[in-house]
Specification:
Rossmann fold, alpha/beta
């Protein structure tokens, strides 16, 4: 039963300072209560009744004070609720109040345009909202300031004062309540469409976030992130700065969890399941979420490690390297919950990703029957991540669009032991790769396959990396020239003409929906078959591919994570020879990036060659040689080293891995000027290929296999073909 307390005027909750549902604000009670008490004393003769009333009133206030915790949300327009139609109901502090429920009073003290810097163009500490927040004397103050400090009037001039000004703000709340709990938030996203993004805001935002980290360390304040809940949901920030009602709801959920410590109890990403394969022979990071402050214990194979969940609900432990084994049980527990994973194997784990040629299922391949003979292997385990909604479906219905908009693109997945039925629907390339590792290493192997037909490189790169390096790729992304016309057409078929809905081809989408949820599940490396959707812009792809590798290596905290790629096959598309050569040069130039050639397996008019077994095995050879030190295994076809004009009409091309090539090699050309090529005859001679041609040509360039559908036949004794390539004559 509620205490009979004085009623606050009905317009109080709608004031600029408190745009929230009606609250009991006790700080204005004194004069009002005194008058009520005096009138009561005049009307009642019995002094005993008067004393009893006083006692009950005081007890009521005492109970209320014990029951209610005051939360002050301090910030700028994002806190205030700008661009939200009804901020009194839907700004994040209002939604936070509803989430916290009884026992909490939440005040919105946001001020549009306010800066943290006291010398900024609109210092928060000079605004009436600041004074009101201090008078509120909160038990908890949640501060989200710094967005407006990215203005060129502010950060360049006064950045040295940011930390001291922030500490001063925190101390001012401690002066009115020495026991105040202080929570400060890293900045919510500022998106590339913001008018100052590239002129300083992007870079200054990162600097401000680092300064906020320092403030937390110096002050002892709790640090949360308002970037994390929105970084993958930029569709909820339509003006590039202010979240929608749904976006504000995500901030409110983040704040509520930080305040209460309730993160839903012990949880782990979906990929942690019974029947999984864990990576052997390297420190094994195990991580998840639990309620703040909970002790988490991880046990497996005689090891036991513990951790305490931080205020963001995160925990992780690192186990000592595990040896290959099967039949293990892992338990992850808190005092209130235990997750038990049985039939766990320890071995080698690889991620297979890219677009449709990696997604291409074994049942559609030419070698399906042969590849599924003796397919049952309980130590080869498959985690087949499949879309809920395919991009080759024509118009999506409203439910499909909604699930894509909310990043619910992939179906729930389970680890499966290999058999003919599971293999049939698995990636043909990844299946053959996994079988080869199993046969050669004789340890359990797990393959996580996450590939999406038609997807571009940019869809698999995290948004923070693209922000820093290619921010324009986000701008009007459905219409800009970064996308091939057929990709744009497919998006329109799925989503319609309007640009409100998301699509897996959107920059960063598949990283957000498919890679981040893996939560850096430990892997040995990546096999990657992609590029068809980027072959129209080779220079852009050279940038994007490097960013992709860097992005994933940062995600897995492994600067040398092996990345084994497949070169595009042969197809009648004019840009493909140059693109294949670009892929070759990238692999040669990047550390622990290797490339398997597939141009000998193409189909004239089909972007999906059905012969997949050799591609998977070539990737397997690269892994065995480069990652597992099986140095006796040949893993590459002939490779050019140098080209030298030995006499008029004759070039000596030094090569590697040349043994066993045909006596008459096809598809060589020479040129004096780029674009002015003539055919050359070629024959092997030891470690060289001797090219002969018209003596009137003074060659500067040699190229091989330079047709969309390659006519090259330079395959060595191990059955490994040479890549399309171009080399200068020196």
């Amino acid at each position: 039963m509620k205490n009979p307390l004085p009623t606050i005027p009905s317009n109080f909750s709608h004031s600029p300072i408190f745009p929230i549902t009606p609250i009991n604000h006790l700080h204005q009670k004194n004069c009002f209560i005194t008058k009520k008490i005096t009138k009561f004393a005049e009307n009642y003769v019995s002094i005993m009744k008067f004393k009893l009333f006083i006692l009950s009133l005081l007890l009521g206030f005492s109970a209320l004070s014990a029951r209610e915790t005051k939360v002050a949300c301090v910030g700028n327009s994002i806190t205030e609720g700008m661009k939200i139609e009804n901020p009194a109901r839907d700004a994040y502090p209002a939604q936070l109040g509803r989430l916290l429920g009884d026992g909490y009073v939440v005040g919105n003290f946001g001020k549009s345009g306010a800066t943290l810097l006291n010398k900024g163009h609109k210092p928060y500490t000079k605004e009436p909202e600041y004074t009101a927040a201090l008078e509120f004397a909160p038990d908890i103050v949640l501060i989200h300031l710094g967005i407006n400090d990215t203005d060129p009037r502010n950060w360049p001039n006064f950045n040295d004062e940011f930390v001291s000004d922030y500490l001063g703000l925190i101390n001012s709340f401690k002066e009115v309540n020495p026991n105040v709990r202080v929570i400060i938030a890293n900045l919510s996203p500022i998106c590339p469409g913001h008018h100052r993004f590239k002129t300083g805001t992007r870079d200054w935002r990162y600097q401000i976030d680092r300064a906020i980290d320092d403030v937390a360390s110096l002050s002892g304040a709790e640090l949360i992130s308002f970037a994390y809940p929105l970084m993958d949901r930029r569709n909820l920030i339509p003006d590039n700065l202010h979240p929608t009602v749904e976006g504000a709801g995500l901030l409110a959920e983040t704040a509520a969890a930080a305040i209460t410590g309730n993160y839903g109890g012990l949880q782990m990403p979906e990929v942690w399941q019974s029947g999984m394969v864990l990576q052997r022979n390297q420190p094994l990071k195990v991580s998840g979420t639990a309620n703040a402050g909970e002790k988490v214990t991880v046990k497996i194979a005689g090891q036991k490690e513990t951790a305490t969940t931080d205020n963001r609900g995160k925990w992780s432990v690192t186990l000592k390297p595990l040896k290959a084994s099967t039949g293990e049980t892992m338990t992850v527990s808190t005092p209130s919950k235990t997750l038990k994973f049985t039939d766990v194997a320890i071995g080698e784990v690889w991620l297979a990703s890219g677009q449709s040629n990696m997604e291409f299922q074994l049942r559609r391949s030419t070698d399906f029957a042969a590849d599924t003979v003796n397919a049952s292997d309980p130590q080869l385990r498959l985690f087949n991540v499949r879309p809920r909604t395919h991009t080759d479906v024509m118009p999506w219905n409203d439910a499909q669009k909604d699930s894509v908009d909310r990043l619910l693109y992939f179906r729930p997945t389970q680890w499966k032991k290999a058999n003919a039925a599971e293999a049939a629907n698995f990636s043909a390339i990844a299946w053959n790769f996994g079988r080869m590792l199993r046969d050669s290493l004789q340890v359990p192997v797990g393959i996580i396959c996450n590939a999406v037909g038609g997807s571009g490189t940019e869809a698999w790169i995290d948004p923070e990396t693209l922000d820093k390096n290619v921010p324009d790729i986000f701008l009007n992304w459905r219409k800009n020239d970064y996308l091939q016309p057929w990709v744009k057409g497919q998006i329109t078929k799925n989503c319609g003409e309007e640009g409100a809905h998301r699509h897996p081809y959107e920059p960063s989408y598949l990283f957000s929906a498919g890679i981040r949820p893996l939560d850096s599940f430990p892997i040995a490396g990546v096999i990657w078959y992609q590029g068809e959707s980027n072959a129209h812009n080779i220079e852009l792809h050279e940038t994007l591919f490097r960013l992709l590798v860097d992005s994933w290596r940062e995600n897995w905290a492994d600067p040398k994570l092996p990345f084994l790629t497949v070169q595009l096959s042969s197809l009648e598309r004019p840009t493909w020879p140059q693109f294949r050569d670009s892929q070759r040069r990238l692999a040669d130039d990047m550390d622990m990036v290797e490339m398997a050639v597939s141009s000998d397996l193409g189909a004239h008019g089909d972007v999906h060659p059905r012969t997949k077994r050799p591609v998977g095995r070539r990737l397997g050879l690269l892994a065995l040689n480069r990652v597992y030190d099986h140095n006796n295994l040949a893993c590459e076809g002939p490779k050019p080293v140098s080209a030298k004009l030995s006499e008029p009409g004759k070039v000596t091309l030094a090569m590697e891995n040349l043994t066993g090539v045909p006596e008459e090699i096809l598809s060589f050309e020479v040129a004096d000027f780029e674009g002015h090529y003539s055919p050359a005859k070629a024959r092997p001679q030891g470690d060289n290929v001797i090219l002969t041609f018209d003596k009137s040509i003074s060659p500067r360039f040699v190229r091989y296999g330079w047709q969309p559908y390659s006519e090259g036949n330079m395959t060595n004794a191990q059955g490994l073909p040479a890549s399309t390539f171009k080399i200068e004559v020196r």
